[in-house]
Amino acid sequence: MTEVTRKLVPEKQTVRIGYLPLTDCASLVMASKLGFDERHGIKIELSREMSWAGVRDKLASGELDAAHVLYGLVYGVQAGIGGQRRDMAVLMNLNQNGQAITVSGELGRAGVIDGASLARQVRASRHLPTLAHTFPTGNHAMLLQYWLAAQGIDPLRDVRVMTVPPSQMVAALRTGQLDGYCAGEPWGYKAIVDGVGVTLASSSAVWPDHPGKVLGTSAAFAQQHPNTCRALIAAVLEAGRWIDASEVNRLQMAATLAAPEFLNTQPELLAPRLLGHYQDGLGKTWNDGGRLRFYGDGAVNFPYLSDGMWFTSQHRRWGLLRDEPDYLGMARQVNRIDLYRQAAEITGTPLPAGAMRASVLCDGVRWDGSDPEAYAAAFGIGHLF
Fold it and tell me: Which of 7, 237, 259, 335 is 20 to 30 Å from 374 at the Cα level?
C-alpha cells in the first residue's frame, strides 16, 4: 500500500447510520443493499430510529456516527436552539422534494382543498385548527409555516402547532387529534389511501426542488474521520444515481424499502408518488414535476450554502433566534463542501459553478442567500425580536 493510498483508507470501516422510516432514506438503504458502501471500503450499518429528537441525541452522544436527518434540525443544533449547542456537519443533501401538506378528510369535505380555502376556514372557525410538523426547527416546520404565512395565516397565532413523529401522523389525523400536518412520504399518501386525509400541496409547490434530508454528523466525527465521510458520501452518491437512472430502478427501490426491516409497508404505498403520480383524496389527480429526487446529475446532493442559510433565515423569522446570526459563517462551518467535492470527483458527479443557488418560493419571493437578514425581516407575517 502506497503512502497516498494509505491516507485515503477510511478510518472507520463500519459506519452506524440512523434513519427514520421515510421514503427519502432510500439512497442510504440502497447504498447498503447494492454494495456501493463496500465498493468504497466501508460497511453501512443502518439503525432504524423512532423520532428526530432521538436522532439528534444519538448523534450528540456518538451512538450514531451519522444520520439521515432534517436539514433544519442540524442548523438548529448548531445554533443552540432549544438545547445544548453543538458543532455539526452536513456532508451532503440526500434528496429534494417528497413532502406534503395534508388536512383531514373532514376539512376536505367542508371545502378545504387548497391554501386559500384553508385560510377562509381558519378565519371563519371559532376554534384554532391543530397542525403538526415533525421537529420544531426542522424542514416540515419551516415549510409548513412558510406556506401558511403565504396564505395569510399566521402559524404562531392563527393555528395550534405541535410536534408529532412522522409515523404517528396518520393515526393522529384519523382520531381527530390533528386537523392536518406536513410530513415526508409515505405519510402524505397513506392518509389518502386510508381515506382520512386530503393533500393540499406537495412540498415542491412550496419551494420547487427544495433541499430535503441531509447526511448529517457531528463536526468532531467529520474532523476525525474525513476518509470515512468521503467514502460514505461517494457510496450514497452512487446509490442516488442508481435510483434516479430509471423508473424500473425506482420500483425496485420501493420494493426493497417496503421490507419489514425498513418501512414495513407495501410497495404500492411508495410507488405512485415516487413516480410523480399524485391524487388529493377528493378525485383530483396530477403528475407532479417536483417528485422526490435523489441525484439529478448531482444537483440534488451538493450542500449549497444558501440552502443551509434559508433554514437559519426562517429560524430568525419565527423568533427562534433572538439575535442576528452569522448566516454565511455558520453555513461555511456546517456544510462540508470540501469533503463533498472530493467524493464527487471520485464518483464522476458533476459540480455546480458556485456554492449558492437561487429559488422562487410559493409567494413569489426570491431567495438566493445574498442578504439573509433583510430576507428574514421582509415578510408581512413573522416574529422577529
Answer: 335
Rounded distance between C-alpha atoms, residue 97 and residue 95, angstroms = 7
In sign, the C-alpha dihedral spanning 105, 106, 111, 116 is: negative
Which residues are bridge partners to 100 per DSSP? 183, 202
How many residues does this entry show for the chain? 385
| Contact between residue 238 and residue 22 where contact means Cβ atoms under 8 Å apart | no
Please spell the DSSP secondary structure of 13-47, one letter per residue. SEEEEEE-SSGGGHHHHHHHHTTHHHHTT-EEEEE
pLDDT tens, residue order, the chain (385 aa): 444 445 689 999 999 999 999 999 999 999 999 999 999 999 999 999 999 999 999 999 999 999 999 999 999 999 999 999 999 999 999 999 999 999 999 999 999 999 999 999 999 998 899 999 999 999 999 999 999 999 999 999 999 999 999 999 999 999 999 999 999 999 999 999 999 999 999 999 999 999 999 999 999 999 999 999 999 999 999 999 999 999 999 999 999 999 999 999 999 999 999 999 999 999 999 999 999 999 999 999 999 999 999 999 999 999 999 999 999 999 999 999 999 999 999 999 999 999 999 999 999 999 999 999 999 999 999 999 7
350 preceded by a cis bond (ω within 30 of 0):
no
Q: Which domains does the chain have, with CATH numbers?
A: 3-97+211-269+292-355 (3.40.190.10)
Neighbours of 350 (CB within 10 A): 10
Strand 213-218, strand 88-93: pairing: antiparallel
pTM tops 0.90, yes or no: yes
